[in-house]
Structure formats: C-alpha cells, structure tokens
C-alpha cells in the first residue's frame, strides 16, 4: 500500500472521485487494500482513520485557498461568517455587478434586480447519534454554507413547543419527519436556501434558515422566495420576524411568496393562484425547483455522511455544495415568440371591450400586495353545465338540424329512447319524422348545388331555407331553377362559409365539453353516475367529429376551386392534434419509441402520419413526474386564432372560463417575455462579476506581508495570478458564447463602469453555460 497518502495526488483523485462517482472514503480505502493484497495475506496496519482525517483537512485547506485566506495577514479566527461560500455570479450583488442607478429603474424593469431564492429541506441527509460536537467540532462550521451551530440551536430550543398546523397540505416528507424512523437521529434533514436562477447554494425551524442568507442583499428592493408550503409559512412570517434574534434582522425589501411549479398540483386550488409561479408578476419562467436539482446529486452521499460526526458531515457537505449558471437564452427567445404570437391571435379573436376590461383586472390583481384581496382573474366561480343541460342542447341541435334540411340518422332521438307522453309532443315528433323523410334528398342537393344558399342570399329569397315553416309548406328548389354561370364562384364562397361555420361549431362544442368536465369533476362520484356522464361527454365527442368532417370536406373543396393561396394561412389543414380546448394543455409529442419494443420487424421505425378520426380524443392527458405540469409552455391551438369567437353562443353564461383562460394566456406571455430580459441581464451580471472577481485576486497578490520568505511570496503571487487568469478565461469564454444575445447592448455596458440597461430587441441567441468551482 502507498506509504504516504499524499504521494501521487491521492487526495485530489479521491476528491474528484467523490464528486463524479460518489465513492465513499471507505470504498476507496478498501480498493487500495485489495490492490495491495487481494488474498487477505499480509494485510498492512489499517490507516483508514488517517485517510479520513487527512481528506477532511485537505478539503478544508482547499476551501481556504480558493477563498483567498492565505493572502491576508489575519488568522482564520478573524474570518467573517460564510466567507468561503462560492458566490453566485448571476445574483444581483449591490456594488459588484449591478448598474449604476439600478434602484431608480422604471417600474416595469425593476424585476431585473429582484433576488429570486428557493427554500427547501432534504430529509435524506440525516445524521445519527454517533458522536458529539465536542469530539468532532468540524474545521470550518459557519465559514461555508452551514450556519453557526450555537445560535441556531438556541433559536430552535426557544421554539421547540411551537405546534405545526397544516392548513393546506401535508407532504409525505413532513409527515414522516417525526416518526419511529427518526429514532436515534440527531438531525432528520438539512434545510437550505438556494439561488433560483444560478442554482448556487446559499448558507443553511426554517425562519432562521431563511433570514440568514439575506443579510448581504439588504440593499435590494424586492425578494421573491419560494417554499413547498409557502401558503402556510408566509401567512405568519411577519409575526415570526418580530421574534427573530439580533444576528438576523428582518429584511426591509418587499417579500413575495411562491410555490414551486412541480409542487403546485399537491396543494388546494382555492385561493392559491397568488402563490403560483406563472401568475406572479416579474417572475419570468423560473420553476423554483432548484433545491430538488441540488439535493439530487447530494443524496448519493447521504449514506456515507449519515454515520459521520456532526463536524465531519458539515465539512463534507460544504465541499460538495456548488453549482453554476445554466443559460437557455435561445430556447427562451423561441418560447417568448410562440407565447406572444399565440396570445396576440387569441386576443384578436375576442371583443376589444372585454380584453380591455380583463387586462385592467389582471393588472390590479398583479399589483395587489400579499395576501391579495383584489378580484382573482385566474379562478372560476364554478360555472358548470349539468347533464340535463347538455341533453336539452342536444335535442335543440337535432331540431335545428332538421329545420335546416339536415339529417338525423335515427327516428328516435339519440339522447332519449322514451316516446312523448302528450298529444302535442307526439305531433311535434311526427312532424320531425316527416320533415326528415321529406328532406332526405337535401344531402344530394348540398353536393350538387352547393351555391344555392349564396344564390338565395343574393336574390333575397330565403324561403327555401326557412326553418320556421311546417314540412308541408316547404318550397322545393330544383337544379333547373338555378343559373349555371356563377356556380364555381358561389360554391367557393359557400365553402369558405362552411369552414368558418364548422370552426364555430368546434369552438362551441369544446366550450360545452369544458363545462361538462367541470360539472363531472365537482359533482359526480360512483360508477353509475360516472358512466352516464362519460356517455354524455362521448356524445359531445361525436359532435366535434361531425364538425371536423365538415371542415375537412369544405377545406378540400375550397382548395380544388381556389387553389393554394394566402387564405390557407387562416384556414389551415385541420388535424386531430389541433382539436383541443383552450383549457387543456398541449398534447405530448409521441415518437416512434425504442426499436424492438413496438414492432416485429427490423425496418426503421417512423412516427405515424395518419390522423384517423377515430383516434381523436378529448380526454385530458395525464402527465408523469418527468413530464412536468405543462403549464409553463402552454399554447393555444390555431383554431382559436382564426376568426372572432362567438361569445354569446350560450356555451358559458357569464364568460368565466374564457376570461380565466385569456388571463392565463396573458400571464404565460408576460413570463416568457420577462425570461428573455432576465436572461440577458444575468449574462451581463455574470460578466461583470467575473471581471470584479479577477480584480479581487489581482489585489490579493500584495496584501500579505511575507518579507524574508521568498518562496512563500512567490507561491502566493503564482496562486493569485492563476485564479485571476481562471476568472478572466471564464469571462472571455462566456462573452464569446453570449455574443449574439448581448450584441445590442451599449459598448460601455460590457466595461467596468456600466450605465446602460437591457432591452429585448434581440430575437435569437446561443445557449451558454459552463461549470466552474
């Protein structure tokens, strides 16, 4: 076995191995032992404890070196709390990477200087009662990401009798935190506050964890904080801040709470819209699930740190925590363009007076302080359509279809099988049957004389399509009654009208379906009622199929008559994937799957282009854990952008659902536009921060007085220059990657003294992102 662990760079190798392969010190030592003697003969004296102690010291010294502590004369005891934390370069640091006069920025641009942070707890990082602080005090507790132990434990002991009351939801992790499984543990988990955007960890009851990392950001005007249970925690935060200890004074900035996007479905829906990320002003497209991405890689070290002493566990986790900015500018620009165009088309299809009123209500709600009392534009007032209402509408539609010369395929109504009981109803039913038999040939007439309606409109004689007449009084229109010279032009106009009429039918039916689903989810339970509701909704499905067939037939006829032209930009080819309500999420794109799983041949597998009508479904698609909620990038089908939506068609009485969905579309558009602006500002801040950090290392070269020790002086200068060159190289690399997004900034904004602001005039960019320590 190696006689010295320091030979051959073993500490550095083990350090990197613990990051990349999550190898524990014990497994590494056993590997060295097996390399020395795999037969178990002549095993040397165990040096496992010496290796663990050496590695802890090496990690700590490495953090001190990278924190610049070797370049000053003062001892380590004089260090401030959290001096060894890796600062997030994309966060807004006053006097470091913010523009001059940032606090005087216009109101609509102040979101660029808001601190976005997340708070969460990891219950995998436990610690057993195997040691005491007196025996394992740690080498740098409080200098890294963990808060000082003594004041934190004092604060916890003062609130040990506080009762946890859940007013919304109890997550499984919280429920199991205090159970028999926590027996023998000193700590059941680790709580942390992290940067939402750069995914850097800030230094670690949760009120203390929340207040500690905010002290360097005292000059900021606003802070957005997310927490899994923010709806419960934030309500009493003002009361709790009055009892905070003196070392964590309450922040003066405006606080805005949020719930991470993936945790939203687990919460109650009533009065929770003010905590949802997509609806909070100046939030951009942050998902606030950063803690989960930070905890994931560190969960693999949970078993090895569980049996460590408290100090050793803290030192180990301090060395593991750290991440960098991941920039998705190009994707953000693309998403912004999609959302803006979709919302613009949706808005154009609605009455201008309604849009103006809804926009005003949204602005009042967004500007209201928490907890909000303004009218909530994202919540519906339980506007449902019952099964009886749907049956009445189906019956009325069949009557209208007969009056217009349409055909109903069964003498008995599709919505009921019982005969009418009164004589008047019987006479009405017989007239309907007579009208159907009398007008069966109208199906052929609509094929061979499609311009009849246009002709009757131009001549002013509409009696041939008068649905108020009894069937015995209807005037027949024979083909010989029409002139043949204008038929193609009339038929083309008629096809255009048919397309718009079919789209209106699809709109109305989808809105009816939405109200039906609301009613079923709210009031239906049990097998029999659910089956009946399902049958009614299936009837709605058939109506959509009918209108889709009508549109496709008219579209094909229009294409034959008029040929390809600009009209196809408005009336596109209708596919089944385009038919979904404005309340539904866009359906997931299905690929061909893995080869060998979905086919019995060895030919290449291609995605199916077939779009059969019987494959279309109006059911809401379920999403798994890895597929997200789908609400951040939700879009509307093109069918809602084509022509003005008929508001007064009876699909929803008070327009609650349509109003809510328009407000959601507006919120998604605002967040996507903010994301582009915020990403560009973060790029600028990262470049400014790295320039500041390079100058910081340059100044460190001559700070420490080491007269008489030329070797030490030369080593200090060499290390400082190396770190300076690394910061400069990172800045140059990022600047090259982000050249396109930042090319429209003023030249002075890239220098040390930056006075310009960021705009969103660039519509394209490159993805940028690098890992650094």
UniProtKB/TrEMBL annotation:
InterPro entries: KDZ. Residues 585-632, 741-773 are annotated as: Disordered. Residues 1-25 form the signal peptide. It comes from the Eukaryota. The keyword Signal applies. Residues 745-773 have a biased composition (Acidic residues). Residues 596-608, 616-630 have a biased composition (Basic and acidic residues). Keywords: Signal. This is CxC2-like cysteine cluster KDZ transposase-associated domain-containing protein. It comes from Armillaria solidipes. The lineage of its organism: Eukaryota, Fungi, Dikarya, Basidiomycota, Agaricomycotina.
